[in-house]
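Q: Is it fine to ask for two folds in a single conversation?
A: Yes, each is treated on its own. Send the first.
Q: Here.
A: Result:
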Amino acid sequence: MNHTIDLQNACDGQKLPPLELFQQWVNAALTEVTEKEFELTIRLVNIDESQQLNKQYRQQDKPTNVLSFPFEVPTGIELNLLGDLVICAQVVEQETKAQNKASFNHWAHMVIHGCLHLLGYDHINDTDAIEMETLEVKILAKLSIANPYEM
């Protein structure tokens, strides 16, 4: 299944993964959990935009790696729009260096993590966190990417 991605690049000077990798990661995440075909937007942003959105929507005045904004389809309307992921390229790259991870492997994890949030998964409590992390690890393994929680 090939989900539709609108990739928006609002940051510059970053070594970003190509659209083909984003497509591979989204497909891996969504097809593991659902048979529905979806559309989503992935917006790559700088620190300022990430911090502004994180403050506005999560009341946290700092940039973050990925924000997920699920689309709530109005009753009676049939749309396959899943929502938006906002990924801060600079935060992802900072984490890559700090955690000594391969750059595109960490990007894959962030995209998969965000997609699972769009599908309703969360990690607010321990039980939900274990379920979500287990699913992330399973999807990443299918992409030959090591468990990011064991590094």
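Q: Second one now.
A: Result:
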Amino acid sequence: MFDRSKFLDIEPYGTSQEAEAACSRVRQHPEFVFALATALFPGADEASYAQRKWFTGAVLSRLEEVHCYDDFQKKITCEVFLDNVILKYTVGDFSYNGQEKLDPKQSYLFVSNHRDIVLDCALLDLALFRSGVPICEMAIGDNLLTNSFIEDIFKLNGAIIVKRDLPVREKYLETVRLSEYFVEKIASGKSIWVAQKSGRSKDGLDVTHPSIIKMLHLAKKREGVSFADVIRSCRIVPVAVSYEYDPNDISKAREEIMTMHDGDYSKGRYEDLFSMIRGLREYKGNVHITFGDVLTGEWTSPDDVASEIDRQIHAGYRLWPTNWFSYDYLNGNSSNSDKYGSLDTEAFLARFAHLNDEVRSFILNSYANPVRSQLEALGR
């Protein structure tokens, strides 16, 4: 039996009382919802104002129907936010495959590549919702919780709070508790999403950190449960999330270049929030999600599990014209020109014309790297 009393500070709002109280708090501050709408529709024209007004009204009215975080995810995140904002204004075509392999009566641990702060899991949930598969909780860093309003929104949306900046001893104990939460929540019948590493991929190299896999075993290891049994019980499903364009490609590249030169990069207090808003409102082109195969068998090494997750993500990644063109451009040829005939290559390159050579090269490699990873995964 899952004992939620041990996890009240990190788990989503798990009772109707908690969810309804949070909805009441949100309704008391319509100006915060309107501020979110303004971030999504920033124009000064009448059409943008009408969009902001519509979004605010749609969210506030539907909060009356929310009695648990599943309600919020379906009625607001999926039906209002994703269907009528993200997909309507910032995505070309949204597609997914592999969902037929999922059993609606089972719970899973979805491990995906990490490109966007909130959309990776949100779009995964939309694919699950449309496929008749129960949607999942999502692990997010507490660095995103810049105020109580945002915390309410995230925890209404099924967020599990991962505490980041802790002393070494406390961090270890918190990791053990998180391990217990993941394994027991999945055993109780609820699926969870976690990124394959703590930060977003900035270079287009989607690599799973074995520490994520080791974390799963920590709590049960104390009870004498084998690593293989824990991995089997979690029913890990690798997921590839593929964006045609990354709205944060320039800022990611600058951050990485500064890190390489200075050895460190100190984020501003609201930098993740700005990246989140940019990722939501800017154009992403086509987006595709591939559900991989459940990891079965006897796994004895976190490194082996991580490698298999990587293999499935790399093989399942949907390569777009932006990826193939960048790959050819950096190789100085047009061997794959048939794969990017629809792309305005001059316009694509013009997006980065104002940047120095180092930053521009980093960005183009971030688009080309998924091609390299897939060719390696498929043995080509």
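Q: Anything structural to flag on that second result?
A: Two points. The chain has 15 helices and seven strands. The beta strands are 94-97, 109-112, 137-141, 159-162, 192-195, 236-243, 287-291.
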